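Appendix B, Record 12. Input sequence as logged:
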Amino acid sequence: MDALIALAGFVAGVSLVFALVAVRRSAASEPPAPEVGFDVARRVVELMEPGAVVVDGADAVVLANAAARGLGVVRGRELAVPHLLRLVATVRRTGQRQEDVRLTAELLGAGPRTVGVQAMRLDNRGTVALLLLDVTESRRIEDVRRDFMANVSHELKTPVGALSLLAEAMQDAANDPDTIRRFSARAVHEAQRLNRLVRELIDLSRLQGGEPLPERDLVSVRVVIAEAIDRTRLAADARAIKLSISGEAAERVLGAEGQLVTALANLLSNAVAYSRSGTTVTVAARAQSGFAEIAVIDQGEGIPPGDQDRIFERFYRVDPARATATGGNGLGLAIVKHIATNHGGGVRVKSQLGTGSTFTLRIPLAPDQALQPRQTMEVR
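Logged structural output:
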């Protein structure tokens, strides 16, 4: 309820406006009096970002601003959400209450939303004021953060636990050189996995706003592709996978070269890890509608349709067993997505089971490059 806590100091002032409503209604039988102050206050309430609703002792709505009506919680002079009616009844007994309320898609005519509600009893006649703030995004971020911490804990425990067990095993096998070599090789693998996880967590933290974005410079697409392929070539050679370049390439984009190389290298590493030995991974580049598009095309197993919308989520892995064998931890594509987004671009995937996948990184061209003639990259 962080956002609502920030509004708590405002509730007292708003309550005065709401009280004016009740006073006005109770004095309806008296001769009319100038109400300039009330009209101004009502306009203020109407312009408030939080939804504001006042109900009388019979649950009739006597005031609802535009934000409340936009949330769909008011129909005519009735509250349209049963949960809010129950909340009003509770507040008449307790004085005030705050909680989250789920609004359905049918109610809004759009996707479901979560609103934080601050409710307060205004008088002894049962008049209740409700402040409603859309907290859907903040709650989503809280859920993501909680899941992220749980996933990090799990991912860190696996290699750390394995290293501990391997160390104990090597102590017990001190007189067996073959066993020592086998366990030490496995320990190296787990240490590399742990190092990769920590490095990618640091990268992801930086990309999500942990530190300022680096200065953007003019970056050659050719250089980005060459550097990314150079990082991946050793792994590709070990599996007899050919790396090739084809297509058209814009000369320059505006961005951080190191981040762009990391994004493309992550796509290439995934393509190599999930391709069959002896196949080809192709990098195809072109200029299209003001963007440099760099596609990584593999001849691997493909991605099931149901997983394609989720593969850019942190720690999400289509095949956890395969990812463990290849050292993957589900952060590589999340890093690619954040780098692309931070550069004003994006990343998309097309995949077919048994045929392979194409991941396309889109980065805006530098302003002076958008009108340049296209250049063809040499196929090799």
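Confidence is low (pLDDT under 50) at residues 1-13, 27-36, 373-380.
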